[in-house]
Write a structure and sequence with these properties.
Elements (H helix, E strand, L loop, with lengths): L17 E7 L5 H9 L16 E6 L2 E5 L11 H18 L3 E9 L3 H10 L5 H13 L4 E5 L6 H15 L4 H4 L3 E3 L8 H14 L10
Parallel strand pairs: 1-3, 1-4, 4-5, 5-6
Antiparallel strand pairs: 2-3
Helix pairs in contact: 1-7
The structure holds guanosine-5'-diphosphate.
Guanosine-5'-diphosphate binds next to helix 1.
């Protein structure tokens, strides 16, 4: 007869961690969103030569904010470094999926269509759409999306960008993802209240009461 083995749950060992993860392409405004919404000043690693790594910050009782390095084209980085960053992000998300309370993906919505059309001409798909779909698949639920920099274009242009983005992340059914995409401006503050409430609501559902720093 095989001997039963009991593994002590991580929570009893005091090792239990859950993550509020922020992802985004380099320069999307991720650090600005984290600062404005969570009240945390995260280090930026976008200057050539600085380390681009995953940073963890304790928020409250077992909940950590995870700031992913910006991915995609990184000014001053080699192709190999860009690939290393992307691999590191994918590996973290895949191996910690069970401990991820929520992911917030930040993108620059003001240039979404322009960038996407350029890529599509080369037969490539938008990195932001790809990331959001990868997150939904890996987590088993939709991430929240901060569609940032809405102050950078007119209302009509932003609306078109938003609709195209939602269309691409939902396999052509934008109404399904409407509740997950928040148009915001980290610069003017527009829309941040709604994003913050959504993050708060999701974390409260998971038993966290005070996920944000008070300022
Ligand atoms: P990260 O690389 O994603 O962490 O991006 P940062 O937060 O460092 O922002 C990149 C640049 O975009 C900075 O120059 C910010 O001032 C600017 N930025 C961030 N959010 C906004 C926004 O909502 N509107 C505008 N116009 N600029 C923004």
């Amino acid at each position: 007869m095989r001997k039963a083995t009991y593994s002590t749950p991580a929570i009893i060992l005091g090792m239990y961690e859950e993550y509020l993860v922020f992802t985004g392409r380099s320069n999307a405004g991720k650090s600005s969103i984290i600062r404005e919404v969570v009240g945390l000043d995260v280090a930026t690693g976008k200057h050539p030569g600085t380390t681009r790594r995953i940073s963890k910050y304790a928020l409250s009782g077992g909940l950590f904010l995870v700031d992913m390095p910006g991915f995609g084209r990184i000014t001053g980085a080699s192709k190999a470094e860009e690939e290393r960053v992307a691999d590191q992000i994918v590996r973290f998300l895949e191996s910690n999926a069970q401990n991820i309370a929520l992911v917030v993906h930040v993108l620059d919505i003001s240039t979404f269509l322009e960038v996407t059309r350029r890529l599509e001409k080369k037969g490539l798909i938008s990195l932001d759409a790809e990331m959001v779909q990868f997150l939904a698949k890996t987590l088993g639920y939709f991430p929240l999306v901060a569609a940032n920099k809405i102050d950078k274009a007119g209302e009509e242009e932003i609306t078109v960008n938003l609709e195209e983005f939602k269309y691409r992340i939902s396999d052509g059914q934008p109404q399904v993802v409407g509740g997950y995409v928040f148009p915001v401006s980290a610069r003017t503050g527009e829309g941040l209240g709604a994003l913050k409430s959504a993050i708060h609501g999701r974390l409260v559902e998971k038993g966290y009461r005070t996920p944000f720093k008070t300022r």
